[in-house]
Write a structure and sequence with these properties.
10 helices; Rossmann fold; globular; 263 residues; seven-stranded mixed beta sheet; single chain; alpha/beta
Length: 263
Amino acid sequence: MTGVMSEWNSTKWITERDFGRSRTSYNLDDLRKAVQPLQGVGAQRLLDIGCGFAGLSRLVGDYIGAKEVHGVDIDDRVIEEAQSKGVEIVLADAGEHKLPYPDGHFDAIMTLGMMDYLVSFDPMIREVNRLLAPGGSVLVALPNLGSWHNRAMLLLGYQPRDVEISSEVLAGVPRGYEGELPAGHIHIPTVRAFTELMTHHGFRTVKLSGGRPRMRSAHKVLEFADSILTRKVTLARRFYYLGEKERSIPEPEKLAHLPYQSL
């Protein structure tokens, strides 16, 4: 790692396995716009939680000039390729456990399209806060519960695709999803809810931006509507949250011992 910022060279790092593992790999222009404010901030260490085959980890790391790029994933099949891309990877379940790094070890952390597989966001966000140095940056990408297409599906009586109620069958979704199996999505937030949650956990919002994941075969009218509505992040099908650590937060077991304050 040189620590020198590079151009956005996706062809160098993104492989077929990255495309197979991460939907973000198909939306690289949205990712570039979301991460652009991190260029020039001097981030030395980047951690990607849920890094997969680590093409996105290296792409972003090079773009912001990180000297070290680290990754965490739960799948041992990604290790060899991630390491071949120069990413220092560890196997760990980031949903409920502390990660094997000291406090304040990273200048930037990202997690792309992974948190919707967690029962609760709190443990992982708390761990991100612990691992970030003061003023460090966090980038999160998630499907948007309040997107225009989820609002339309609810209005028509359908279940939003990214809020699954069964591990056996996709129930209540439009016919276009027939033949698919549940992916493990548990829940997704609105942009407002996630922003408020990050504030609660000690972060200041730096930038919110919308994303346009690949659409299934759709009428050109829908594609055009999507391109227009995505300009308003609260209606976009996907959103990127970029935040800055403002304060450390107490461990959950200490919360009960804080003095009570009436509202």
